[in-house]
Fold these 3 entries.
Entry 1:
Amino acid sequence: MNPFWMWAALSAILFAGEILTTSFVLVFFAAAALIMAVAVAIMPMPNDVQLIVFGVLGLLGLAVGRKWIRARMAARPSPGFAVDSKSEFTADRDLAVGAEGAMLYQGAPWTVVNSGTSAIAAGDRVRVIQTSGIKLMIERVGQ
């Protein structure tokens, strides 16, 4: 088999694997295989040299590129989730002051914490004060 097509096929397989795994590992080896396909098309080289250059390019790309991608991902602000502060809903269970439990909010179960000064009974109207991580801080309306 022509080395150009072998490296091109390996590159396509590795890119497909990266799409399936989204691990940011295979993409660097796929790029290295693509570079090798171009390199062997321009300048033929022995198989052992091809493998060594491919390995070095893949590992170098992994070492440098993954750090770069992680730094860019960490610098990006987290989208978080949107909860309408001050929105109200009806409590579906009792919750003592400072207690944590699960309640339905907009049709989905949420972890809630009673941050108010009075206990919440099932059927009471409650208000979302703020979010803390993935928890809703609530209080009984009319406190």
Entry 2:
Amino acid sequence: MTDTKNEKIHEMTKVVMIVEDDDTIRKLLTIECKRRGFEVIEYRDAASAMAAIDRNKPKVDAAIVDLMNIGYGGNLGDYLRKYDQYRTVKIIYYPALTDSQFNKNILETPGTYYVHKVPGSIKTVIEIVEKI
């Protein structure tokens, strides 16, 4: 006998994938997302996240991704969107790149955001996640 009430709650809970190699920043993002009721799956690098996507196809509603992340050059957004189930995932790129270093063409894809990683910017990232 399955607990359909718990299954429905899980289906309604928004899932945030965090891909960040800086342990402190990843933990802060995780704490803030969980505090707001989101389920979080976290990875230290893009390669691990991509392996999990290929293997498990986890539910993901939003992804917070450090563009400079080790693995796939950080462009996890393109990788996610090659799968039909992830085409509507909101991608929040969260690198420490300056505006002149960041390729703004990435933002042409709907549902894609950029937040420059500076002190206090986690609040901005969480505000975007809350809008999903």
Entry 3:
Amino acid sequence: MLNTERIRLMTRLAAYEQGEGKEYGRIGRYYRHDYVGLQMIKVFFCSTAAFLILLVLSVLYQMEDLERFLYQMDYEKFASGLLTRYILFVVFYQAAAWIVYSLRYRKGSKEQKLYHSRLKKVEKLYEREERQFPGDD
């Protein structure tokens, strides 16, 4: 005998496993601090690469003024300004990464708990069905 409630739950579980469950399953393997920290390390390297790309593009854009700029430039002031911009750039992206990945971890944890509660419900439905119809396989 088919149990429609159990089939409905199993369909939801299968859809979850095929879709967002893959990402949330990876999140579930970490503690929050470890997951967010790992993502922030990735963001640090990506933001550093992005800053360097923007710097190169800026230099290429101002290539005509570069020769005059190099002769009249105060190198210490330029280096300190560039370092300040780099630090602000990285700090901004680190803060954004912390917020985004903390929220993503929180949502993933809730979804994983819901998934496990549905699994337990399916298991209870199986057990109840086995008690009602002991010889059916």
